[in-house]
């Protein structure tokens, strides 16, 4: 049999190799299905979290209008509102309690995988969205960033279920990517989302998830930019704080923030564990008592402790308010009391506001120094002292204030010093501590999770 001409053989070989190479480059149908799930989930997270941000700002503005109408109104609205939120939460979605980051950390552990339908349901997303806004409308000292992590993780998990992606590695990657995308969209800070995923959520996860994380974060960030435009929460101040020239101010501020941040976590954990039995028996009495104290602190402080604290932090950065220790200490107390009620809400923005207060106070103690620069250092340091995630802390502050890279070394040094000091007061990061207490059933329970527990895991049912 005569062989085909050499040109024909070469053409056939080329087409064969090209077809194999294209399949390898383009991927299989399952590869594209996986990509589609991540992309759709990331876009969905970006849209929902941006709507959440707008709703939260609107809710906080309504409370400001209430205070303008009657300065005494919060003494009634805040405690009764927090009681109503606890009632709605207990009767609709108890898994929406608190920040939401501890719940995400718990379900990422393989032995608590069975809690995912409870902690990552659409009902939790709706409850977290509505009740956090309700909490801001009542004047609670809480943020929306922690709930945004919970919402993002839950949405990505649900999109994975709708796409029938049951693989353990894929589900874990979806949850981490969703939580990171939630941070990115909440702060409009993509780099902070990447760092948060690696430093807080991923921890021991395989590096294979990094690519999908970054794609999810970028997509959610693009959606937020399209919906809200480019913005920085605290504007673009012009700080001048060089590490070598102002090392004393930076170290002093970082040490104070680390001490107060560690103390804050210690009080939060001790208070939560001590109040847990009372919350189980009398949840509405605890909410009413804590709400009254939150309202009283806000009234006595002139209203500066209500809400997330973003307006107060911005005023300190712009040097429109007189600094002092009253604001950061009162903000810490108000945030602790709000968290003790169990209402949905996060710790990020109250911590940034508290750090701004400490930094502004320290900045005025030193002569010939940049008050704005020390204020930013205080924000990064206190957030690092609370979370004990220094990279996440200084990246968030840097991105929220216009990416001033000349402040990078100062923010970085302050965050690491504050973390080291905070560990002397409370050695475990706050979200790890809350997740551990939740998993062991020592924290506030989520009713109904025990019904989903598989056999042999009843002892951990209270973790729900």
List keywords for this structure.
mainly alpha, Clc chloride channel, disordered C terminus
Outline:
The chain has 19 helices and no strands. It is mostly helical and 464 residues long.
Number of helices: 19
Count of structural domains: 2
Assigned CATH class of the largest domain: Mainly Alpha
CATH topology of the largest domain: Clc chloride channel
- How are helices and strands ordered from N to C? HHHHHHHHHHHHHHHHHHH
The CATH architecture of the largest domain would be: Orthogonal Bundle
- Average pLDDT across residues? 80
Name the CATH superfamily assignment of the largest domain.
Clc chloride channel
**Percent range of helical residues:** over 70%
Structural class: mainly alpha
In the predicted model, the low-confidence regions spanning at least 5 consecutive residues are 204-211, 445-452, 458-464
**Which overall shape is indicated by the principal axes computed on the Cα atoms?**
globular
Multimer state: single chain
Largest sheet: none
- Termini separation: 75 Å
Describe the protein.
The structure is a single chain. This protein starts with 5 loop residues before the first helix and ends in a 24-residue tail after the last helix. The chain folds into 2 domains: 34-228, Clc chloride channel (Orthogonal Bundle), CATH 1.10.3080.10; 247-440, Clc chloride channel (Orthogonal Bundle). It is mainly alpha-helical. The chain has 19 helices and no strands. The longest helix is centred in the N-terminal third of the chain and has 41 residues, at 29-69.
